[in-house]
Amino acid sequence: MTRLLPATLFVSLAVAPPAFAEWTIGAFAGGAHTQRTSLTITRPAESTSVSLAGVRHRSESLEPPIYYGYRIAFFPGWRWLGIEGELIHLKVVADTARDVQISGLLRGEPVGSTVRMSSVIEDFSITHGVNLLLVNAVLRRQAVVDRGGNARFAVTARLGAGASVPHPESTIGGRHVEGYEWGAASVQAAAGIEMHVKRRVSVFAEYKLTHTAQDVRVAEGTARTPLTTHHVVAGLALRLGARD
């Protein structure tokens, strides 16, 4: 999975002009909150096709494996517009102890009521990461220039799209299924601020909004869930090859 990010970035930047190029390498950690969502479970062998509404997720961002991300960006000569490859290790853990609204066909019987989620699926999570793999367009505006003409701060904005490589884990009827899969398309919008603490080192804080709709395996079937997530992150960036 980690080999995909530099490969995608290389293809995207193959035609970029080399003169006065700046590369930025960054890493970050933080927290995420996924909005209430639905989970649609389809298991043909048991005549089950149900939708669970009002599913809540815990992020468990600081529990191993923790929430993290890293990215590599390229800024050509004008330096205010760049292109970037980014990995976001987002996690979601369904709170199956809560009640949800159920509708559809469960083991051949029509259903439409409020039930404890664990009565339908004991566990559902993507804890080794939804793993969003994105290519971003980055806008960066330098601000607060000091007496030496050096920028101390910068504001940034990102729009991105790409793929995902989720690692879902689920248990239905005592049967546990987990493993990496090729996931669905993903998108993000983000805004943040950078502070230059040394000549080529910056710290940054950022808000992100991401969306993806995952369709993953469960025992004898599939589960589909749209995930809209708010992220707040902070990290460190290193600038390489920049003009001073």
Structure description:
A hairpin with a 5-residue loop joins strand 5 (68-75) and strand 6 (81-89). The protein is 4% helix and 64% strand. It has one helix spanning 4-13, and strands at residues 22-34, 37-43, 48-55, 57-58, 68-75, 81-89, 92-94, 99-106, 109-116, 123-126, 132-145, 151-164, 169-172, 175-178, 186-196, 201-218, 221-240. Residues 1-18 have low confidence and may be disordered. It has an eight-stranded antiparallel barrel with strand order 1-5-6-11-12-15-16-17. A five-stranded antiparallel sheet has the order 4-7-10-13-14, with no helix packed on it. With 244 residues, it is mainly beta. The chain has one domain (4-240): Porin (Beta Barrel). The protein is built from one helix and 17 strands.
Going across the major beta sheet, what is the strand order?
1-5-6-11-12-15-16-17
Question: What is Rg?
Answer: 21 Å
Total helix count?
Answer: 1
Tell me the number of strands. Answer: 17
The mean pLDDT is 89
Instruction: Sketch the major β-sheet.
Output: 8 strands, antiparallel, barrel
Question: Helix/strand/pairing class, anyone?
Answer: mainly beta
Highlighted features:
single chain, 244 residues, mainly beta, Porin, eight-stranded antiparallel beta barrel, five-stranded antiparallel beta sheet, 17 strands, elongated, disordered N terminus
Compact overview of the structure:
Helices cover 4% and strands 64% of the residues. The protein is mostly beta strands and 244 residues long. It has a single domain (4-240), classed as Porin, CATH 2.40.160.
